[in-house]
Design brief:
Number of helices of chain A: 13
CATH topology of the largest domain in chain A: Aspartate Aminotransferase, domain 2
Order of helices and strands of chain A: HEHHEHEHEHEHEHEEHHHEEHEEEH
Structural class of chain A: alpha/beta
Helix content of chain A: 25-40%
Distance between the termini of chain A: 29 Å
Strand order of the largest sheet of chain A: 2-8-7-6-5-3-4
Oligomer: homodimer
Largest sheet of chain A: 7 strands, mixed
Shape of chain A: globular
Number of strands of chain A: 13
């Protein structure tokens, strides 16, 4: 069972394809790979692995602070956004939480591990999966300790803006926003909540680096929050050094790599426009406007299912995400991410062949 | 406050010495650095950071299984031995534990974080800090859920053998042995408990790579245990991917680097013999026979204290470990590890100058 996009080892074994040959449209990872700057930084500093990383990660936090325009004292770094999600939930220890859903499976796993009652607030297909904020707010009562939101949301690609986020913050005890995909949005200033951290004590923003910076292998994520209670608790209970020296080294230079960041934004924007245009031409396929680097689609005829489409494509070394394992989605939904122009064209052609 | 050897960032700031200039006798880290083999492996495979590590770490576990001659299904890998200690204690959730002490501070921190009552079983100075196993066993009653032992022990360097370990295993509910320093011992077959894992369901062995393989920056540790209950619990609750792709890559080749392993053993053995001989010549200094790569010493006259010795040496860029922060030790104790012959000679000469 594929619980995460990009489970390449499972695919490799099951379909007998070597990892390197798989064109991975399922992992939502920046296709630019790493920049020469980062590659050289590693090659010239391999010796960092012979010493412990700075336990306080001061240079890394400075770098994130500049990148996100936030106070460095409000930053927690961790072993991927996964550790940050886990640390926040463990230390908040909510009894009742609402997950805006369908969404990333780790929230549910971590809340369950902490014996939290989970309520799913479902994004409706008839609303094109856009979050109805008024309706969400009407579900918040005194028992609800936490709202979990991925923004832009995975797998729907939908996002809400800062004004809508404020409405939720004014009503709830705590809001955790996972912004793993925020940097891919062309409307980042409006969507991303880091600028609200100073004004809201009940906001915890989570960021990863795996997707936007294309480095899932380094395991580097961070959280931004002003609430001293929760920060102190997390710092007390977290393992020291969970971000290793190589991840620390890369992080320090990566957030400042303006050329790479701009190239990524340009690629995603241009390719998304192209893909939207091409998808519009395919009958029997509906797609949802995405604020991120992936697109959720729905098959409208009976010719195939998401599983069958998955199987047809993997035979040609193309890996998409069958979205039926997400709550509230069925076997008409699949997701794919934006790769290079060449690969995107290939995928669009396959869709045309199979679905038309 | 230096809670860990090798807190070079704190030293750098406090004493205004650049990290690179510090001769670090406090970190207990293999002075050989990394081998050319490992350096080339990284340089030729930097792209591993663009994909997630295998969530099941199959190749890494195979490599550890061969190295430790143990069943790969009994292995858990984690972000340094720190994560393994933390995962084991969280999931065992002992109410009462005995720590054989003085020892590494993380055991106490983690047990406290899990609201465990801690009882310290103190290694006696009059016994040269050798563990009195009979006495330890007589302290074990039905309330004690866990015995924590570092073997060889940090900072005393003392170790017990497999027959003694069996006596404890036959009496206690669970024994956690941290073998971070076992590979430095010339008597590893007798000391290391991995061969007992198959016979004892109540044994959890922890290994790190930071010290012996000289790579604290990669954060790679592992646990070996046969108890399915505790393994299943840990696997259920642990974050996926906590060992990053570079650590995974290095781990896979490192355990098979026979030349590096042998060179390390030779260096430590030869230098330890030389250091013991030289220390014997210094009046007013007592040292404890160590089964590891570090040596605990006691100042016998009033000429100086461990803190003063530390301060005198750091002015010359030499960093030793003032051992008075360990439970049951006072300001006559300090610890240093074995580095290159040149650096060892330098340190011995300083000791002679200051202490004689």
């Amino acid at each position: 069972m594929l619980n995460h996009g990009g489970d390449l080892d499972i695919i490799q074994k099951k379909y007998n394809i070597s990892r390197e040959k798989i064109i991975d449209f399922s992992g939502n990872i920046n296709p630019l790979g790493i920049s020469n700057k980062i590659e050289n930084t590693i090659k010239n500093n391999i010796n960092v692995i012979t010493t412990y990383p700075d336990k306080d990660y001061i240079s890394l936090k400075n770098s994130i602070s500049t990148y996100c325009n936030c106070n460095k004292n409000n930053i927690i770094v961790g072993n991927g956004s996964t550790e940050i999600i886990s640390l926040f939930i463990k230390n908040l220890s909510p009894k009742n939480a609402i997950i805006v859903s369908p969404s990333y499976s780790e929230y549910e796993r971590e809340l369950k591990n902490n014996n939290c009652n989970i309520h799913f607030f479902d994004l409706k297909e008839e609303d094109d999966f856009l979050l109805n904020v008024d309706k969400l707010i009407s579900c918040i009562n005194d028992n609800i300790d936490l709202i979990v939101l991925c923004n832009p949301n995975n797998p729907t690609g939908t996002a809400i803006n800062n004004n809508q986020i404020k409405l939720i913050l004014n009503k709830c005890k705590f809001l955790m926003i996972d912004e793993t995909y925020a940097e891919f949005s062309s409307d980042i200033e409006n969507i991303c909540a880091t600028s609200l951290v100073n004004d809201y004590d009940n906001l915890f923003v989570i960021r990863g680096t795996s997707k936007f910076f294309g480095v899932p292998g380094i395991r580097l994520g961070y959280g931004i929050c002003k609430n001293k209670n929760i920060l102190d608790k997390i710092n007390k209970y977290k393992d020291p050094w969970s971000v290793n020296s190589i991840a620390n080294l890369i992080g320090i230079s990566m957030f400042d790599d303006k050329e790479y960041i701009q190239n990524t934004k340009n690629l995603i924007l241009n390719q998304k426009q192209f893909i939207f245009e091409e998808l519009s031409k395919i009958k029997n396929l509906k797609f949802y406007k995405s604020s991120s680097n992936f697109i959720l689609c729905k098959i409208l005829n009976n010719k195939t299912t998401s599983s069958k489409l998955f199987e047809d494509l993997i035979k040609e070394n193309i890996l998409i995400r069958d979205a039926k394992s997400f709550p509230f989605l069925d076997d008409t939904f699949f997701r794919f991410c934006i790769l290079s122009e060449k690969n995107n064209r290939l995928l669009i052609q396959k869709f045309k062949n199979i679905l038309s």
